[in-house]
Amino acid sequence: MSTGNFKQDVHAQLARVGKALSSGNRLELLESIAQGPRSVDELASMTRLSVANASKHLQELRRAGLVRARKEGLRVFYELAGSDVVALIAALGHVAETQLAEMEQLVRTYITARDDLEPVPAAELFKRSKLGLVTVLDVRPAKEFAAGHLPGAINVPVENLGKRLRKLPKGREVIAYCRGPYCLLSVDAVALLRTKGFKARRLEDGFPEWKASGLPVEA
């Protein structure tokens, strides 16, 4: 509701978005929704929340304009309101990494300490995959892969990777990706592949960032 003061009104609307992002549960829901449209019960299961609690958080995200909802029969499905939501979350992560020692420590402990090789930027991967120089490996669950994935990617969920290494050509570097910059599935995959003699690295970000940048996707 307008107060008649432009600056106050603008900042009040910005605060609505900030409030919606002020919950770790809601940020995790956004990461899950960024993989593809999901129903409330699916999102509750993915984020280990009750359906009632997940629904409450999703309504908060919807009121802030970050997600959209559509009904199919009795089920409600949520999707991101736009690719700018992915950019907003990425900016939030960048600020946290550069300004919060605790965040920097978490990234160092769980990611860079386990994988100190530079991840591959999306533009470089796109160029190399078009030339057939790398194997692109999607280690997300099959349903997320089906909703959208990088062109030519092979889907082997990380929990099945040890049993399905023969699916990967040995002579090419493997570039693994998952849900985003803080998803550990690709870190685990790369660590396993290296112990088995593969040359492997991670994509710098994940599927949502790739899609949001305008690079092609398959479904």
Textual characterization of the structure:
The structure is a single chain. Strand 2 (67-72) and strand 3 (75-80) form a beta hairpin. The protein has helices at 6-20, 24-33, 40-47, 51-63, 83-99, 101-112, 122-130, 142-147, 185-195, 207-212, and strands spanning 38-39, 67-72, 75-80, 134-138, 154-155, 173-177, 200-202. The chain folds into 2 domains: 6-81, Orthogonal Bundle (Arc Repressor Mutant, subunit A), CATH 1.10.10.10; 115-212, 3-Layer(aba) Sandwich (Oxidized Rhodanese, domain 1), CATH 3.40.250.10. With 219 residues, the protein is an alpha/beta fold. The N and C termini lie far apart (41 Å). Helix 2 crosses helix 3 (40-47).
Outline the secondary-structure elements.
Blueprint: H1 6-20, H2 24-33, E1 38-39, H3 40-47, H4 51-63, E2 67-72, E3 75-80, H5 83-99, H6 101-112, H7 122-130, E4 134-138, H8 142-147, E5 154-155, E6 173-177, H9 185-195, E7 200-202, H10 207-212
Parallel strand pairs: 4-5, 4-6, 6-7
Antiparallel strand pairs: 1-3, 2-3
Helix pairs in contact: 2-3, 3-4, 5-6
